[in-house]
Amino acid sequence: MLVRQALVLLSALSLVACSSVPAPVSTAVFKAVELPAELSESSGLLCIGNEFISFNDSGGLPELYRINAEGKILQRLKLMTKNIDWEAITTDGQFLYLADIGNNAGQRSSLYIHKIPLDWRFLKQPYQPVTLEISLPQQSGLKAHQHDFDFEALVYQQGALYLFSKSWASEKTVLYRLDPHSQQQALGVALPLQSPDFLVTDATFDSFTEQWWLVGYTHPFKAIWAYLIGSGFQAQIARYDARLQLQQVQPLPTQGQVEGLCIDEMRQIWISEEASQQKPARLIKTGLSTG
């Protein structure tokens, strides 16, 4: 949705100089498949076995899509809730947590996280999820893309939900810890995090290596300019250790608007992209591995 909105941030960000920790291992060839038109604005990605779950962002149908590695839709789950701006999805192994957390314009007073059984087989559609409401601090006069209360990444880890900010104004990502059992809660206090120096659009935790991974693209002005001249977005991926200490940032081999990230059972890193004027939405096996 970035390409259809006016951007006013003009300063440039530099890529993080990282520690000597080795880069992700390249174990496979980069492979991209087209997603169907129903998923043209794929905005989040979850690896489930050898399949994936994705969805569209603001204005899309309130549906989840289970897809295979070829991008084919295998199953749909209709939800009895509005898609204000769905941006992320994570799981505790029993439930999905679908994050309606996008807030580009800065006009929202609350965010919503919808709790849905991971197993859809016996769910009556449209399914009514349990919804967690997260109240945002009272703010006045926020301008689109000039505030720090927009979010696109959510991760479940060790009994808590972790929400990563996009931080248009400060350009410094922060972290919020949420209770997955509380249906009414405040956003709380921001936890400091060394910024990867890109806009974070998704995140995941790899339990095998105990590493956090964040994905996104560089400074929005540079990103939109690159899009307008046809060179695409400058996609980046960052790796953090178990204590959320930044280890490494590196570019991804794509020029698309990366919005989704997950790691499969073979430790392979996958991403998804929204459609653009040049390309359809895509599901991508990056060729990178965490193992």
Short overview:
The protein is mainly beta and 291 residues long.
Describe this structure in words.
With about 290 residues, this protein is mainly β. The protein has a single domain, classed as Tachylectin-2, Chain A (5 Propeller), CATH 2.115.10. Helices cover about 5% and strands about 40% of the residues. Strands 1, 2, 19, 20 and 21 form a five-stranded antiparallel sheet that branches. Strands 7-8-9-10-14 form a five-stranded mixed sheet, with no helix packed on it. It has a four-stranded antiparallel sheet with strand order 3-4-5-6, with no helix packed on it. A hairpin with a 5-residue loop joins strand 5 (about 65) and strand 6. About 40% of the residues are buried.
Number of strands: 21
- Number of helices in the DSSP assignment: 1
Beta-strand content bin:
35-45%
Q: Runs with pLDDT <50, length 5+?
A: 1-22
Termini gap: 33 Å
The shape is globular
Major sheet size, sense and barrel closure = 5 strands, antiparallel
CATH architecture: 5 Propeller
CATH topology: Tachylectin-2, Chain A
Order of helices and strands: EEEEEEEEEEEEEEEEHEEEEE
Q: How would you state the average pLDDT, rounded?
A: 88
Number of domains: 1
Helix content: under 10%
Class derived from helix and strand content:
mainly beta
